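Example for tutorial group B:
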């Protein structure tokens, strides 16, 4: 007797990274398409999402690309995005770091998407290229 295991892609859930969230907050050209492609879906991300958003705003403040008022408005938008945190497996994530010579933050998204058979939404071309190598389905924007 042969037993076949079929992994079903969870198409009702999308794992998003900071690049996609920042595109929404900063009103980037991809914003409308991201919102359209995620409408009605459960939005998931890893715990570092908040830190990455904070770090991006900190960099924009230092570079004088945004005022502190802009940052507060952006964080207000971020607080309204309904997302659920999903845990990453640090050992598997760090294995991806070693395998692909990438930063840990990127590996957290990739690992969580892979392990949970989730569609990944990222605007980061390098992360998307690694996702393809790892057979992680991408939600194209």
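The residue assignment follows.
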């Amino acid at each position: 007797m042969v037993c076949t295991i079929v992994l079903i892609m969870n198409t009702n859930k999308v794992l998003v990274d900071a690049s996609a969230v920042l595109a929404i907050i900063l009103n980037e050209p991809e914003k409308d398409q991201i919102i359209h492609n995620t409408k009605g879906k459960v939005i998931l991300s890893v715990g570092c999402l908040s830190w990455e958003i904070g770090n991006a705003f900190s960099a924009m403040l230092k570079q004088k690309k945004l005022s502190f008022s802009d940052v507060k408005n952006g964080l207000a938008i971020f607080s309204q995005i309904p997302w659920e945190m999903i845990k990453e497996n640090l050992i598997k994530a760090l294995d991806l770091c070693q395998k692909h010579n990438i930063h840990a933050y990127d590996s957290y998204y990739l690992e969580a998407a892979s392990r949970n058979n989730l569609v990944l939404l990222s605007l980061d071309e390098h992360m998307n290229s690694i996702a393809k190598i790892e057979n992680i389905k991408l939600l194209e924007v």
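The beta strands are 10-16, 42-45, 83-85, 118-121. Compare this with the pattern of hydrophobic and polar residues in the output above.
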